[in-house]
User: What shape does this take?
Amino acid sequence: MPDLLWFRDITMADLPRVGGKNASLGEMVSRLHGVGVRVPGGFATTADAYRAFLAHDDLAVRIQAELEGLDTSDVQELAVVAARIRAWVEGQPFPAGLEQSIRSAYDALVAEQARPDQVTWAIRSSATAEDLPDASFAGQQETFLNIAGIENVLEAIRGVFASLYTDRAVVYRAQRGFDEDDMAISAGVQLMVRSDVGASGVMFTIDTESGFDEVVFITSAYGLGETVVQGSVNPDEFYVYKPALRAGRPAILRRELGTKAIALRYAAGTRIGDSTVLTDVDDDERSRFSLTDPQVEELARSALVIEAHYGRPMDIEWALDGVDGTLFIVQARPETVVTRRDPSVLRRYELRARSDVLAAGRAVGEKIGHGPVRVMHDLSLMHQFRPGDVLVADRTDPDWEPIMKQASAIVTDSGGRTCHAAIVARELGIPAVVGTGDGTTTLRDGAGVTVSCSEGDDGLVYRGILDYAIDETPLDSIPEIPVDLMLNVAVPDQAFTLARLPNRGVGLARLEFIINRAIGIHPRALAEFDTLPEPLRTDVAERTRAYSSPRDFFVQRVAEGVATIAAAFAPKPVIVRMSDFKTNEYAGLVGGDLFEPQEENPMLGWRGASRYTTPSFRECFAMECEALRHVRDRMGLMNLKIMIPFVRTVDEAVATIALLAENGLRRGENGLEIVMMCEIPSNAILADAFLDHFDGFSIGSNDLTQLTLGVDRDSALVAGSFDERDPAVLDLFARAIEACTRRGKYIGICGQGPSDHPDLAEWLLARGIQSMSLNADAIVETWLRLAEVSASTAVPV
Assistant: This one.
């Protein structure tokens, strides 16, 4: 059998000979190079070569004698024995034939390089039992980077062989019952990508939290990829929509700027252990995304090819060469956590109480856990950890796994959703909040906390032990009903998860929620940036400097929020309501006090359609239109529909429709439907006149109720005495439903009423309403109740 194999000759069938990692690299080099997947070339030593290496001078016999009878729970004895074995391996000479094979292959590799004196090498470990369905050796063995010269390469290969006997690897094999005689390791010698002056990261061909499989999720940071994998840096994040990518359209759904405070770079030395150094990233680089949009989409296209080849969701490592700008794939393995979930049952965790938020970061796991805080600055305190504690650390690595398995939740200062802490938390099924920045200093040791990852992208650590509920929905037994139940979606970062609920689309997504959460700056402060006074101008510039201009910041962030929701539910309809901030709400945004008047009753003031058509706000409305046009016309998400709120008069309706057309959103063009909120009594009374200009109504029951009955819904003195079931309000509901039904136009309701009042939902069903848009916590119960009602009254399904 040969001592080594070239990657171009390796396939997955060679896993027993070169281990999981190197087999995967070879598979991509040999099978995917011709379809655009770039993988650095090289060769791998074989398992037979490793066994021949151990057989020399009876090294295998001596190792076996050391391991027999070893009590792996005795940490001190384990450390002594493992260190002794590693020293033997590192000092062992290669069999003459193996060393000659390596030297010859190395010479051939060097001869292929245009600048042979400037190349270095990555020496990667690949255990032959790795990536089995019931075992994962990820992170157990060592990889050596930036190795120059054949002598250092040989030393690094011995280092790879020795890493099969790290403390954690010995314990792992003992716990899993692996026979040492069956274990072997392969060393891959691969051209080093100069990502130290570029960027690197991890990508998944599935959303790691919700399991939504129509996106590629990419994390990225400057320098070598170890900082992303280990969680010592908070990376940039990108979501790429697969259908748009396949269609050749702009495909980036979302971008999140990470802090990227440090980078792993090459040091001056090239010997093992002295080849890399952590450096601070300057402020200018931190404030920019580490990848351009074309680079993000190029990575995502490679991910699609790899996923199609393997026929399953994949976990992929990549690197950007900062010298020539070339993107490389440096590892790919099947995703093994999300794909094991039971797709027939949806579990949703919901807090029943709230308290002070002590720390916040990126949510991992969509679950809730609680317990006493245990701040661990290093593993010397491992003996203090108790089952059920909340592990709080700067970051984690494989050495931390024994206590991670006992934790009720994990909180880290640094790291993103693809770091070690996040990956292990998913495998263990516990919530984790990563990248808090200050969890180890703000969380007090021994204090009870609740860790919530059930509220979208943001993971929150609350003070105290809070009660929560777990709702289980069997998705394979939802009956048909004669009405479309849609969802109200408040924030885009919950869209992928909410799309798994029974639904017929989104009946209400509020643009002002996206503006408030993702932008936080008054749109006029962005549109009129050059006129802003100091220090506001500096503040806005700082908040938006990752984008080409403040205006582009607004358009892109709004487009991302809308596109995320539209993609999550496609091809089902998604109705997005144009902004409906009131003056007091706009004033609360950065810079808002410069542009908003004081009103006695903002609820009845400058809002909705009347704001859009005011000259001072027209450019802001144009920015909203540009964002929605990008989602529909450029990304191809034609399921997006537009809704206009608070249209007082027919003249306002005419003016608003004309203004939309001026901004490229013409009703009927490319199938665009524009509906109107029916929330003012005049809308229902003059329903036919308004419907001449819109494709239907969506009843806003909250405003329609208060404006019909003269009730201030914010007043505790009177608001509780009335609700949507008042006969006068129901009469207006009936008028709207009748007019839309008669004219064959859309009629739905997106207010709170059907979520709060089951009998109102039944009344609407009987009246023949086309759709009801409900809050997520009410949709399953309402769905099942309406199924019973329709069955008992023979309403046709």
